[in-house]
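TICKET #2291
ISSUE: user wants both folds in one file
ATTACHMENT 1:
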Amino acid sequence: MKKNSIVLIIGLMSLALIGVLAMQFYFLRDSYRQKSQLFDESVNAALTAVAGKLERREVVDFAKVQQERNIEKSKQEQAKQRQLTEQLRLQTQIEELRGKLDQVYQKYKVREDKLKALYPNVVNIENWFYETYIRRPQYQDLVEINIIKTPTNSMYYQEDVIVSATKTIPRIEAKDDSTRFLIIHFDDYKRLIGRDLFVLPPRSDPKLARKIFELETKLNKLSRQNARYEFNVYDSVAMLGGKKADYIEDVAIGMELAKRPLKDRLNVIIVQELLKEELAQRDIKAPFNIEIWSTSNILLNNILNEAELNSPKNTTKYSTALFKGDIGAAPGKLTIYFPNKKAIIADNMGYLLLPMLALLFLLVGCFAYTLIIIFRQKKVSEMKTDFINNMTHEFKTPVATIMIASESLKDPDINADHKRVQKLANIIYDENVRLGNHIERVLDLAKLEKETLKLDREDVHINDLVAAVTDSMQLRMQNIGGQFSVDLAATKDLVVGDELHFSNVFYNLLDNAIKYNKGDLHVNINSKNVGDNIVITIADNGIGMSRDHLQKIFDQFYRIPTGNVHNVKGFGLGLSYVQDILRRLNGRITVKSEKDKGTTFEVILPIKK
């Protein structure tokens, strides 16, 4: 593979990996924003629900106290004036009916709050609107649902759902006094996906209201008869304003409630419990801190015991007004904040983060593995190219020699000389044998790669075999002026293997020692027993190898580079063949070498037991 192709592949793969990383980052960031927005909406809804409950709780408690006071006052007046007995009875009955009517309203209010807490988009619709548009299928298409965004004090918008009609048609009056709500369903992109109708019982009991009205009429008539000139403050204000006395009394109660200090109107423990309950209903169970403000002064900065956290300056705070039903401005506000909000949202995104990281590591691993394979294949390709060049060079000499000898045989003068013909024939034969040996070595390596080479399993005395190989190499050693030192001291040298291939192993090792010499070659050959193994050591004082080459000499086709000089013949297959044969025969080989100091090979074989 060409260098430009490799660079192009790496560039494209890197670009694809960067693209995947960018897409994952964008997806995580967008998911975090959506989770954060949903978290803010849930917390604000919980705060609103808590504020409503606190206000209703105060009204109910004060109404009970007020009712007890009225009953006690009526009892005292009854003891003083017998003529007011009937009036007291009517008053008591009215108060009881009002209490029941209040209970009806409170039950309705609890259901309404649960409905609004359960569904974020709940819109109250008038009964005439339901009868006119929604109940009649042919006019349901006229119903229009819109989201109105109103900017708030913070960076967010308050969204209000408005239900209206696109066309005005004759109104059909309500047939009952039930309370109806439309539950609007939006998808994540605020698109309408559905709506449901939810019906609650009436806010008030008409029978109770009618009974109260009748009793009040009787009470007023009785009061005019028995105490025509006695009026309280509420009656006087009512007469001047043209209002009913009970209405004026409700206003007075509201004013009296508003006069109380805010710290006396709140119970911190109840506030905390209500907040925990509302947040838990929305799957938020993280620790939070509470602040209660009165107009401009902070009344309470309460850190929950299990949190014990400090509020960072950039922490998002959520607030809602307290007692919004008071006349005038709200007397205070309730604020909460989560010091570890980011950690909460990150935990909720854990199910997305882990698979994405796993996929990312998988892609990076595949990318790295692909690069390794590409460079490895490039290296193998280069080594095979060198092998072909070496093979061409090695085959060229015997082929040229055979060609020259063959052409000489064509000369009639040479043909007539029997001795010269015999000599040329011997040359041709020797070169053919040499060429055949080269081809046989290449074929043996091919068989090793294909796992088709068959090895015999017979008893071999390694000492005798090494001695025989050394003897056969003596002539070559003498030609270069070197010498062997043989010390085969191993007492147990019987191993199981293939004698021919064992001979080739040691022939290759000695052949390399002779090839890579620097003059005055000396090769030490010895054997010894180590445990259940026999170790044959072949050490020379040749040119040696650097550490970089030492790690590659057992690779196929690898030859230590010598520049443009080709004075050492070979294919780079010998040591690869040696290692593969020893591995198949349960042996192994190790090597130690220093540049310009020599090389030591150790062949380790298991002894036959």
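ATTACHMENT 2:
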Amino acid sequence: MTDNDKDNLVDSNLVGEVWTTAQPGEDPVLYGHVDISPKGKFPIRSLQTFHMTYTVGRFGLDDTGAIRVMLRAMGDGGGLQTNDPTGYNYTTATTSSGVPLLLEYSRYGASPRPRWKTLTIRVSGGFLREGDTIEIVLGDTSKGSPGLRLQSMVEANYEFKVAADVCAVGHYTPIPNTPNINIVPAEPALWRAVLPSLRRPGEHFSFGLKAEDKWGNPSDKAQAKFTLEANLPVNELPDEVNYPLGRRSMLFEGLSVDEPGTLRITVRDEGGNEVAQSHPLVIEDGPHSGYWGDMHGQSGESIGIGTSRDYFNFGRNMAFLDAISHQANDFQINNAFWAFLNELTAEYHEDGRFVTFPGYEWSGNTAVGGDRNVYFRTEGRPIYRSSHALLTDRSDLDMDANDAKALFERLVDEDCVVYAHVGGRYADIAFAHDGTKETAMEIHSAWGTFEWLLTDGFPLGYRNGVVCNSDGHKGRPGASYPGVSTFGAYGGLTCFLTEELTRDSFFDCLRRRHHYGTTGTRMHLDVKARFSEPAILFDRDPNLFPDTASQPSREVMMGDIVQTSGDTVSLSVRTVTQAPIERIEVRNGTEVIETLRGYTEQDLGRRVRVLWSGAEYRGRGRDTNWKGKVSFGGVNIRRFEKVNAWNHDRLFEQQGQDTIVFDAISTGNFGGFDAWLDADKSGELSVATNLGGMTLPLDEIGFDDVVMEAGGLGRRITAFRLPEENTCREITAEVEIPIAAGRDNPLWICVTTEDGFQAWSSPIYVFQ
């Protein structure tokens, strides 16, 4: 192993991981050692065969004793199996002395977090002496198996952790020198061009360029010569770029545009073909710029993969973020890791370039309040954990906050902000909420989409902003693909509208809710409320801060709290996107006041969109599995395009001339497809799924949604018609909204683009 490889190893001293304290002895030679072949680099999702050799130590391995091969919970490689020698991931084990073995694989529960996936190999009908070996073949192809399918994400040191119960007492002791392999990117599948969304004339910004493989990993196997074509003059942007082999990204810094406008950069190859187009960057005078952050994810020191240093590097250099925080589960953060995280945020923080925040995820069970994210303005603050579930050091047990109410009490004097979020556990904001600290609700992450977390607070009088983050566990903050398992959505991002890129500006932004969230794209979103007579704009929530300052204003921005004497308000909306806009919903609380589109009913063509969406329920098992087919009654499909089809291993294809079959997941978010049909209105749409079906004539599918409800939590199939080609990527509108008396009027919008992304503005809270 090289020094560079060692740098990519997760330091076991920083991992909250509990092994048995009762062991047969201290000398590692008692337990044996393990090796693996072949070693080296292996592409993601490739089929491989690995031979692991466990050599028995001085104690031997007693009858009914066992060893365990333990894999990280968030790896999405093929599940090991021992029953079908012709199937994927077939695994065998034999002893050098002929003693028989029993093999059992468990995806969950056999070993503690973070290594839930466990192959147990038990001696049965004999015993092993020192020097005897167990040969384990992962992906044994000798009887027809294609091999072991590797995971979909890059990992520099993928561990095959081995532990041994040499005395057959049920206690497993880890074997030193865990075997590792290097899982590397595949060939590039597409190029990404990344710009921020809002800057002032003359203000600096960066442009990021990278190639991603099929599963979203920045690939080092790309090499090309490009022309960069900007629709506005960009200072310091090169005309041509040589993208060298071995790089995983390129970042062009110190760019600026002198005049107002909307910048888009097109990347063309040597033949003049477009290979990527950037997100839009709006250049305009104003008090704010838009900075993008992913403030929620974790690394291999807890439940994720990769090191925390890799995590910060990826966010800054390969996801091209402006802001980041690391949010490990508190019950797995030992004191050494908490100190190290604070060192990392201090090291990576750079005003004007890359803002970091020290913090953690308070991970109480839903019964005691559910998940919260805590962000401190400065390093060196204490950690108030929900429990010490995976921590052996009990010296600071009295610092715990065992429910969310106790957490908010602990944080009263801390300079911090808190998000409520939905992960494995979901936040119960009715059980506990402190609006002076908990400024935002995370309504989208790789776990799915959860508008209800925000809207549940409306009748309770909560005034929170919208944030979206990845909650990524796969080492890719800011560009968090869900992979094959566990997660059902692409991770989110938040745009912070601040005066400058500093911690102080971000905290001011968060406390005023001047931010919006997306499901992972970067778009410009401007939402303002305008009043015919001056209204009262409050600096802070007057229900929480009675002495807060206020001022008269005829115009306020997203997140503001304002009191008006009028009966109506004019909501001004401007959206500029990368992909065509499918719709914008203008909302007052949970009511959709108006739906904006960039096309009319007369523009509709022969394109039909079919979507599946929703979840089972609010808890951990929220994934909904959709299996079915959609046919068009003999009308030929000229072409079809998938929407939010993140898992490439699942069935999703056209069969015959008129049918689409699918096996998909939704987890509060949505997926589906567009079908361009030969006939205009003849034929019949037939949807048949495991959760219900519907049949109707194609001429009844038009501008408005046709919906088949499927129970669960917002579970449904939706069909509607779109133009043959929608070119609208910018909408500006004014919507007059009546104000209901005696309550808050949370005015906000939800934008949906044709490529499946969504964005939500933080509500403007208007009351009389």
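RESOLUTION: both attachments delivered.
EXTRA DETAIL ON ATTACHMENT 2: The first helix runs from residue 3 to 7.
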